[in-house]
Amino acid sequence: MTLAATPQTASLSPILKQATPVVVDHALGSWIHGTDGHSYLDFTTGIGVTSTGHCHPRVVAAAQEQCTKIIHAQYTTVMHQPLLDLTEKLGAVLPLGLDSVFYANSGSEAVEAAVRLARMATAKPNIIVFQGGFHGRTVAAASLTSAGTRFSAGFSPLMGGVHMAPFPYAYRYGWNDDAAIDFALKELDYLLASRVAPNDTAAFLIEPVLGDGGYLPTPPRFLAGLRERADRHGILLIIDEVQAGFGRTGKFWGHQHADDLTPDILITAKGLASGFPISAIAAPTELMSQAWPGSQGGTYGGNAVAAAAAIATLDVIDDEDLVENARIRGEQMLSGIRSVTAGYDAVGDVRGLGLMVGVEFVSRDGDVAVPDAATALAVQQATTRHGLLTLTCGPEANVVRLIPALVVTEHEIATGIERFSAALSDVAARNDGP
Ligand SMILES: Cc1ncc(COP(=O)(O)O)c(C=O)c1O
């Protein structure tokens, strides 16, 4: 091969859209240090991934040690010890009865695995999802997603058999929680009666907190209503814990805020391995056994280094009492953000569960609150300038979300609130709003 006289230079595809201009040099705990010499308090955690913070020494050590043993032990060819150990450890935190685990790489893949399992096990085609839900970007996962047309426009046809019911988004409807829940359950019953027969429906699929759909906690009574209907009609309940699971909401699984509720299939990824790509679905053995053996798999699924990192993540969460920390620091963050946003007309709603807090921006048209994406974006960008990394979300892109690591300290939350407040007042001064 001869080299061209003038070597070609490549650049990153414009398909990628980056929320901040930061280029990372290194990171530790809740802090990212940029190549620009600035340090940033990271309330994005790689979209809720680095549960134990960046580069937790025990996660780093576990991954380093595993790298010296075997990196890629392809799991449909040979089995490896970290995956067996991880499965045993996960057994202790999985809801009772969900004792069979299948691994993949990403959240989207795990969502697809869950849907495939549900369809195979029930021999029924339909999946009912809820408006504003986000389940990933692969074609099937995007077909299940309604957190913004940006995730599913332009590459139709999407996967068939997906039907959508309303989510009890009380703030949007201008109702209280109970009215929104009653409405959403009534509309679900209407959908089941009018268009999507229970006998043709494999599963309901829902997040315990809508993530990309706007940081909206799913009310426990709504989840209980889904469970009751699932049992009544022989439909499976799939809970997508990809973003809300692994301690983030102050309980180990987000759905545990609904007492005594157990899903039929649970999906996990993100926080599972503190940043290494691994995902999983869990279901009762009896259900999992109805999948055709060999019907799922993949080259990289259940990677050995990721599995070792996941084991270390579980140990750190346990030893450092991080689920309880998420609960306490989450309460601090929610009340702190509520207090610094009070009095701003552009802040329509502040909500959250544990270390998932969303601030919804609106403009006013008389009594009507109109989603205001421009102000949300301005605030998100201003937080970066104040040394705090945040993200936007929501179908109308008008929510700023804060997602600190589970190791976040009281001082770091206080610093984050101060920086958020400074960013908000900058934008207000510029716009003569919010
Ligand atoms: C709830 C939920 N499900 C699925 C996914 C898709 O995961 P991934 O991006 O790893 O494919 C995400 C990602 O943000 C998510 O938040």
Automatic annotation (TrEMBL):
Listed pathway(s): Amino-acid degradation; 4-aminobutanoate degradation
Cofactor or coenzyme needed: pyridoxal 5'-phosphate
Keyword Transferase: yes
Gene Ontology molecular function: (S)-3-amino-2-methylpropionate transaminase activity; 4-aminobutyrate:2-oxoglutarate transaminase activity; identical protein binding; pyridoxal phosphate binding
Pfam families, A to Z: Aminotran_3
InterPro entries membership: Aminotrans_3, Aminotrans_3_PPA_site, Class-III_PLP-dep_AT, PyrdxlP-dep_Trfase, PyrdxlP-dep_Trfase_major, PyrdxlP-dep_Trfase_small
Residue stretches spanning the membrane: none
Protein EC: 2.6.1.19, 2.6.1.22
Record field: catalytic activity: 4-aminobutanoate + 2-oxoglutarate = succinate semialdehyde + L-glutamate; (S)-3-amino-2-methylpropanoate + 2-oxoglutarate = 2-methyl-3-oxopropanoate + L-glutamate
Keywords: Aminotransferase, Pyridoxal phosphate, Transferase
PANTHER family: AMINOTRANSFERASE CLASS III, LEUCINE_METHIONINE RACEMASE
Protein family according to the UniProt entry: Belongs to the class-III pyridoxal-phosphate-dependent aminotransferase family.
Protein name per UniProt: (S)-3-amino-2-methylpropionate transaminase
